Amino acid sequence: MTLQKTTQAKLKALFTEAEASKAFLASKKDPKKTITDVIQAMVKELDAEIFELKNQEGKAASSALGFAVVFYKDSQLLIGPIYIAKAYQGQGFSKVLLEQIVQLAKSKNLVSIYTKTWGANKASRHLFTSYGFTQTKEVLDDRADGDSTVSYIYQLRSD
Q1: Residue 158's pLDDT is what?
Q2: Backbone angles phi and psi of 65, in degrees to 5
């Protein structure tokens, strides 16, 4: 598997699938924002990068297994939305995607990786904790449906 930089336009079908599957839970502050809105803002305002997980043969973007949005702040990589295509969910590809993100951060000699998810997103919470991320904070009643936002960090090195 490889992680390749891409654009939002190339992954439009996958973003549409993510929206339809409710793979994103808006904040209480801005409940009408979609995953596409959030990613557009991250790319524009935070200079975020979009990566797609592809098989080693490098098939067309329409066959992407999933995507991750990342950006950098100081010596930290921050993970925004991540998503694995429905056809590939439950097969370990989220762990492969996360491993590729960790390798990206290591290649940039960063100190840590930070991410957030919502409290009821058991799959993401399990992924992060099983990989060694530590929960740092939980903000209750922070999402549009009253759910919480949970923050995690993964230390790559201590400075």
Answers
A1: 73
A2: -80, -30
Helix (H) or strand (E) holding 75: none
Alpha-carbon gap, residue 99 to 53, rounded angstroms: 11
Tell me the C-alpha distance between 27 and 75, whole Å: 26
2-110 placed in CATH 3.30.1360.120: no
Low-confidence residues in the chain, pLDDT < 70: 56-62, 159
Among candidate residues 78, 66, 60, 57, the one with its CA nearest the CA of residue 17? 66
List C-alpha distances in Å: 144 to 3, 24, 25, 132, 136.
31, 11, 7, 28, 21
> What's phi and psi for 83, nearest 5 deg?
-155, 140
- What residue spans define the domains of the chain? 2-110
> What pairs with residue 95 in β-bridges?
none
Global pTM reads: 0.89
